[in-house]
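Folding problem:
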Amino acid sequence: MRSKLKLIITTLLFAFFSTIAVAEDGGCKALVFKELNHLPHTVESYPFRVWYATKGKNAVKNAAVIDDLLLQLHTADKYFYQELKLTPPLLQPRYKQAEWIDVYMVEMKRGNGLAFDEVIDEKSSKGADGYSCGIKMHINSNLLPSRNITPAHELFHLYQYSNSMFKVSWYLEGMARWVEQAFRGVSARDTEREVPNSCATVYDESYSAARYWQDLAQRHQAENIIISQDYLDLSYSDGSPVFKTDTFKNGAVVQSIFDSLLKESHRVSVENDLPLYRWPEKTQRSAQFNDDICNVIE
């Protein structure tokens, strides 16, 4: 009887918090980002705001890099919300206070990109005025978007962050790598690896878990996402195409996965007495929710 009563209370609380979700957001932290002193140029192309330099350690190779970067970001953003039917990050309750997606072109010692999950009001130095609240990503200033799809990959992470609080790597990196297929095409690496039997098989993996998401979509017999000619006609400054395939196989499952994870994230928040959008970082990355995630997406 007690367990049944607990279930009823949890269900009612979940329903209550779901109705007020649109009223809660993750706040906006004021932080000092000293590297802004070395990024004198800004391009505003809503929802993106790109910060970059033409001299010094952060210098981009040429002006075409910024044009190619914005082309990739805008195309990916349009593809994610129009074709995959996902809600853009700035329209999600978690990022209610964010006005921009800030893209900082900076020297990176490791990797080509990094997406951050909190709303930040960054200042160039102590005492300086803020530049307004935004969510952000770092992109390696040496990167050539015409040859590298890291910006689209990092943007997809912002879509993931805005939808649910889970940050386990097999979900974040594995799913993002799978979704990349529309931009890079299907390679032998995508088809030759052993297909996992379940989510549990890839709990300890990262990018390589992409094969799980590909298999899950196929098992769900989701509809293919057909890349229209308008997308296929897009090309970078060097003439290379933005999209490398005309079909994202079984890609329609992405929306249903996001819907399931949104509900599960809210349920976990209520059950564990966590704010909807302010989980501690350790909790977001915790493996304790792996089985919960697996159950709702399978």
Q: What stands out?
A: The mean pLDDT is 88. The longest helix spans residues 63-83. Residues 37 and 231 are 37 Å apart (CA to CA).
